[in-house]
Amino acid sequence: MKFNWIAISLLLSATAAAAGSAPTGWVKAGNDAGQFQVVVEGSNPAAAWLESSSAASGRFGTLMQTIDARRYAGKRVRWSGQLRAQAVRSWGGLWLRVDGPSDKVLAFDNMQDRPVRGDSAWRRSEVVLDVPASARRLAFGFLLDGAGRLAARGLSLAIVGRNVPVTKPGLDSRLLPERPVNLNFKAR
Q1: Domain extents for the chain?
Q2: Any idea what DSSP says for residue 101?
Q3: Exposed, middle or buried by CB within 10 Å (0-12, 13-18, 19+), for 158?
Q4: What is the pLDDT of residues 7-29, one digit of tens each?
């Protein structure tokens, strides 16, 4: 399974968060967390904004949490909420990572293949992954790559049925072929 640099960076940077800059229970992290501010607005529903005017593409900040995976082990989970973008130059999205023994990444999706960009009204977004029985931790949040403002509200982490498709093809064994395909590279 191939993971991009953000999956690995989030794993390594979770402990390098800026103190005092995130709401209770949340951690501000990323490969350039110091370039990102967190602003919480409203109360019903409250929204948290990640914003940066100076971060370059490839430099990201995230607002995240890490929890024990025991409650979710062997189940399918959906991390969802509403996202809103303002002047997002690169991209942003929700993300969910499943960690196993020895910090091995077992599953990961950060919406990079279906990002929030530019300016947008509130839109529902979700990440759905299977949590293997060997899972130890779930890490999740929302991230902004580069400059702009990205807000999240109405967030939820829920166990869902197997009828809900995963958001990363190939992680769901029902989507995989039963046998190898086109091993001799024949054209269609």
Answers
A1: 5-175
A2: G
A3: middle
A4: 444 443 443 333 336 888 999 99
Angstrom distance (rounded) from CA 28 to CA 43 = 20
* HSE, side-chain direction, 13 A CA sphere, residue 178: 0
Q: Before 45, cis peptide (omega within 30)?
A: yes
What the block records as the tokens of 185 is: 């590279």
Indicate the pairing of strand 88-99 with strand 105-109. antiparallel
What's the CA gap between 59 and 32, in Å, rounded?
6
Global confidence as pTM: 0.80
pLDDT band at 188 (very low <50, low <70, confident <90, very high): low
Q: Which residues contact 12 (CB under 8 A, 6 or more apart)?
A: none
The dotted CATH code for 5-175 is 2.60.120.260
**How would you class 182 by CB atoms within 10 Å of its CB: exposed for 0-12, middle for 13-18, buried for 19 or more?**
exposed
